[in-house]
Amino acid sequence: MNAKTDHPQTKIDAPVLLAITILITIVLQRFVPLPFLPSLPSRIIGAILFIGGFSIGIPAFRGMLKAKTSANPHRPTNALVFEGTYRITRNPMYLSMLVIYAGISIFFQNPWFIVFLPILAWLFTTWVIIPEEKYLEQKFGSDYLDFKSRVRRWI
After folding, report:
1. Which is nearest to 83 in space by CA: 16, 150, 7?
2. What's the first-to-final CA gap in the chain, in angstroms?
3. What is the DSSP letter of 86?
4. What distances in angstroms separate CA 35 from CA 19, 106, 108, one per listed residue?
5. 105, 46 contact by CB (below 8 A)
6. pLDDT, tens only, 88-144
7. For residue 4, is pLDDT > 80?
């Protein structure tokens, strides 16, 4: 593959999409506030989800380092990772981002975050994951197709 094209041709980077969504929901809550859970339960639930998100993402990142492949979508993928959280989901880092996002939203009592959660999951799928899957199918062929048939996209 050409060095300039040997990476997924995603529409937008997932962290950028996440940051844009967070900004939109903060502005919405500021100007169109919605009621939410009482403070103490929301802090507890939010913290649990926040920590849970990292417990999904960190092992996935470590698995990529162990396989000597890049987590950066603008660099070539050198290997597929099948261990750790990749046994549960093909996209543990994106799942991690969504769980962390949900934890932040609940912790800071911003229901707009929750309203946007399914939209963000759909945008991740459409603009990031599907282009990555096409790239991985092209690069790894039957190895990736076999992985795809065994492991769900999300959970």
Report:
1. 150
2. 31
3. G
4. 23, 12, 12
5. yes
6. 999 999 999 999 999 999 999 999 988 999 999 999 999 999 999 999 999 999 999
7. no
pTM: 0.86
Q: What is the pLDDT of residue 114?
A: 87
C-alpha neighbours within 13 Å on the C-beta side of residue 18:
16
Domain ranges of the chain: 14-28+37-150
Spatial separation of the C-alpha atoms in residues 116 and 120, rounded to whole Å: 6
- Number of Cα atoms under 13 Å in the Cβ half of residue 11: 9
Q: Amino acid letter at 13?
A: D
Residue 142 tokens, joined:
């039957």
How far is residue 138's CA from residue 154's CA, in Å, rounded to a whole number? 21
The whole-angstrom separation of Cα 81 and Cα 33 is 42
